[in-house]
Design brief:
The protein is mainly β. Helix content is 10%, strand content 38%. The radius of gyration is 28 Å and the shape is globular. 51% of the residues are buried.
Length: 812
């Protein structure tokens, strides 16, 4: 499929500017949470056991469960706690060797019915003046098997933990009085093979509009661009709902505001007699001269204002950011963005982080992307589920290209409705370049089932979004990728990619997964009994070579211009799937960054070849007690022309750096100093030194941002380092830290990147003023969340026998 259209960003994750008749309210605060029970209804607040239960009658007078306004918590042996969503209850559960390996040994799942169901209740007031409006609830994601009620009325259910849900609650509300929304989430069944958490882990929104309004995800804007991009022809498709009781006439008006503030009026569309409870799509087109393009280096975003007018009066308004870009894949030259040949330098990512699990705050989503972009990443694959809208908003703003992936492969309503929800919700984000309909479907990769299913899903994807290509990822099976617009190859050792090129020369393709070969940060000797592995890259593989998987992968894709690029497995470590380790390991160790985002050595390999920044990184560290006299390979990742290595004052030689490669020397370990000198064009350009350090003497404390918004949601990410008396980082220091926060801010969560982490991750006292964490190989992380009052909060970190550190954060 030749694609010359582009997409505009329609961002519902953030607060949008609406008319007085239409408003969006965050519905994240004021929830109460309690555990139910997955196996015994009598311990699940009697859910469904009533005479005339919630499926039998609408808001039955017999209902007394948590969904009923008559519910009396005192009759049940359960503790209801105050929570703010996004919320992941699994974060606070203990670890157990008997729990699910794939989900990080957390005590959730079929073995643990008492901690696998969570109930949420929220009371809210609706003024009398809202009567006559259309009011709906939107849940961006609930894990999983969610059931929703308002004032005892059952609204519906959603088995998937990754689908956005929208419910019309207008007829169920007490106007001028209190109302109740209730959610039951059941995380017993695993939907993925990785940590997924549990609960309302994404945002919730309350939308109030006129009965005549833009439908949820009802704007689809795209444009045709032809190089040299002096003009764009923009098409805006808008679906309007009439939730009233009579037919209605209306006019649609669109205004485009450019990044430089200039405004462009698009043609109006007038519609007659939209029937009650019906929808209609209108289409307008307009030409834009000299469009300002969105790209990864300069992600320029427009604002598209859409107004619904009745009798000349605006009754509904949507104000959304949009971005213009031209994307195409070529069978011979790879990937193009705005006419420029760009190699996709990507990573796969799951959606959890130390201290918060799957309930990642928006500011932390952006932090994770910024850390990836520092090492040259320009692309992100959402393995293996649709992303939270907030993350796509961040990709749009920061300039990260996205493969967004559907959760389940198939062609019936259960599968296609999820594909449809993903595409209709996200098809306006400029960051999204491919829709993925599946990953490593081993049962159908090798047979005709896979080819037929993939072909059908491709056509559904094209119907929902004719502007983008579809992909599917194979772990080696040749048939499932035959119908794909762009084939996805998982791992060069599993796919005969060069043979596929000879057999299918017109096929477009990317490396959807590739091995990083990383291990635990700062670990250079295997300790499998305790859950640690050194980087596989450091393991010998043959008599005259070193197995360096991350290097092998990039060289392979860089040397083949017909491949669009690759996506490493993974960008960050993630909880669960700790293969090949087992308990006590609880996290995967294949991230280029650890679970907190601290870089491993391999991050510097990518930074050397994916960025223009001068890089010289040597490892291992030189605190190798117990290995005195051993032969130790010392590696350098660098983009210098040459590197010379000195160990304890003796030169081990000056070597030329191969393209996309690394250098290594064999050294005999004795405590002291290792120095590397990098040369560019024959001249000394960089020098790096690592030394055997002294004992921990003091702490360092840095924040990604010292000023954050006093909105109760913003987050500062603090990094704690352990230093010796000379100010050198102690790379093997594992010491206990005590954390205190004053003022209006609170400790949201902590971590240290240790793949065997089994301690508590966050305060559960409702205050978050004190907590503890242990450093792992010299580092720890603290997530500090803003309060609602402007002012300063000081974070102080202490440890026995070392000098403390503090930093003052400002809420504004």
């Amino acid at each position: 499929m030749t694609i010359k259209k582009l997409t505009l960003a329609l961002l519902f994750g953030a607060m949008v500017a609406l008319s007085p008749a239409a408003e969006r309210e965050s519905f994240d605060s004021g929830w109460k949470f309690a555990f139910g029970n997955a196996s015994d209804p009598a311990k699940d607040f009697g859910c469904g056991t009533e005479y005339f239960n919630y499926l039998t009658k609408a808001a039955s007078i017999h209902n007394e469960g948590p969904y009923s306004p008559k519910f009396d918590p005192s009759k049940w042996d359960a503790e209801w706690t105050d929570v703010t969503v996004p919320h992941d209850w699994v974060v606070d559960l203990p670890f157990s060797k008997e729990a699910s390996h794939s989900h990080g040994y957390k005590t959730v799942g079929f073995k643990y019915p008492a901690t696998s169901v969570g109930w949420y209740r929220k009371e809210f007031f609706v003024p009398e003046s809202d009567k006559g409006k259309h009011i709906s609830l939107q849940f961006d994601g609930i894990f999983r098997d969610a059931r929703i009620w308002v004032n005892g009325f059952y609204l519906g259910s959603e088995p998937s933990g990754y689908a956005t849900q929208v419910y019309d609650i207008s007829e169920y509300l007490n106007y001028g009085g209190e109302n109740l929304v209730t959610v039951r989430a059941d995380a017993t069944l695993e939907e993925g093979w990785f940590y997924e958490g549990g609960g309302i882990y994404r945002h919730v929104w309350l939308d109030k509009t006129d009965p005549l309004h833009v439908a949820p995800f009802g704007v689809f804007a795209y444009a045709e661009l032809v190089p040299p991009y002096g003009e764009a022809v923009i098409t805006v498709e808008t679906t309007v709902d009439n939730k009233g009781l009579a037919p209605d006439d209306y006019t649609l008006r669109h205004t485009l505001i450019a990044p430089d503030g200039k405004t462009i009026s698009l043609p109006e569309a007038s519609e007659k007699q939209l029937l009650a409870k019906d929808s209609r799509k209108s289409v307008v087109k307009a030409k834009i001269a000299n469009p300002m393009l969105w790209d990864t280096d300069n992600p320029q975003l427009y604002t598209l204002q859409t107004e619904v007018m009745r009798d000349g009066k605006v009754v509904d308004t949507r104000s959304t950011r949009i971005g213009l870009r031209d994307v195409r894949f070529d069978a011979d030259k790879g990937f193009f963005l705005n006419g420029k040949n760009v190699k996709l330098k990507g990573v796969n990512m799951h959606q959890d982080h130390a201290g918060v699990g799957a309930a990642i705050p928006d500011a932390l989503q952006a932090y994770r992307l910024r850390e990836l972009k520092k090492m040259g990443v320009n692309a992100y694959r959402s393995s293996h589920n649709p992303m939270t809208p907030a993350m796509l908003d961040a990709c749009d703003s920061i300039g990260i290209l996205v493969i967004e992936e559907n959760r389940l492969t198939g062609v019936n309503d259960e599968h296609i409705r999820l594909l449809e929800r993903m595409i209709e919700r996200d098809r306006n984000h400029p960051s999204v370049i491919l829709w993925s309909v599946g990953n490593e479907e081993w049962g159908i990769e090798w047979n005709d089932f896979g080819e037929r299913i993939a072909a059908s899903m491709r056509e559904y994807a094209h119907r929902l979004d004719p502007t983008r290509s579809m992909t599917v990822a194979t772990s080696g099976g040749p048939t499932i990728v035959k119908p794909a617009d762009v084939a996805g190859y998982n791992y060069v050792v599993q796919n005969p990619i060069d043979q596929h090129r000879r057999d299918y020369p017109q096929r477009k393709a990317v490396g959807s997964e590739e091995t990083t070969g990383t291990g635990a940060r700062g670990i250079y000797f295997d300790d499998h009994a305790n859950g640690y592995m050194k980087a596989l890259n450091l393991s010998p593989n043959g008599p005259d070579s070193v197995y360096n998987a991350i290097e092998r992968g990039w060289k392979f894709y860089d040397e083949r211009p017909w491949l669009g690029g690759l996506f490493y497995w993974t960008g960050f470590d993630y909880r669960g799937e700790s293969n090949p380790m087992v308990f006590p390991a609880t996290n995967s160790q294949f991230g280029i960054l650890d679970y907190c985002g601290f870089p491993k050595d391999e991050a510097y390999y990518l930074k050397s070849w994916w960025t223009d920044e001068p890089i010289l990184h040597i490892f291992p560290h030189w605190n190798l007690k117990g290995h005195e006299g051993d032969s130790i390979p010392v590696w350098a990742y660098s983009n210098m022309d040459e590197v010379e290595l000195f160990v304890n004052g003796k030169s081990l030689g000056r070597k030329a750096m191969p393209k996309n490669g690394h250098l290594s020397w064999d050294a005999v370990y004795q405590p002291g100093k290792v120095k590397a000198v990098g040369y560019k064009n024959g001249k000394k350009a960089l020098e790096r030194t690592i030394e055997t350090t002294g004992a921990p003497a003091r702490l360092s404390l840095e924040a990604d941002r010292q000023a954050i918004n006093a909105d109760g949601t913003d987050v500062a990410v603090l990094s704690v380092g352990v230093l010796d008396k000379k100010g050198r980082m102690v790379p093997d220091a594992d010491i206990d830290l005590n954390i205190t926060v004053d003022g209006d801010m609170r400790i949201l969560g902590v971590g240290n990147g240790n793949p065997t982490f089994q301690a508590k991750e966050r305060p559960t006292d409702g205050k978050g003023k004190t907590f503890t964490v242990k450093t792992f190989n010299g580092l720890a992380q603290i997530l500090v969340q803003a309060g609602s009052q402007p002012g300063g909060s000081t974070v102080t970190v202490t440890s026995e026998g070392v000098a403390p550190a503090s930093i003052t954060l400002t809420g504004r």
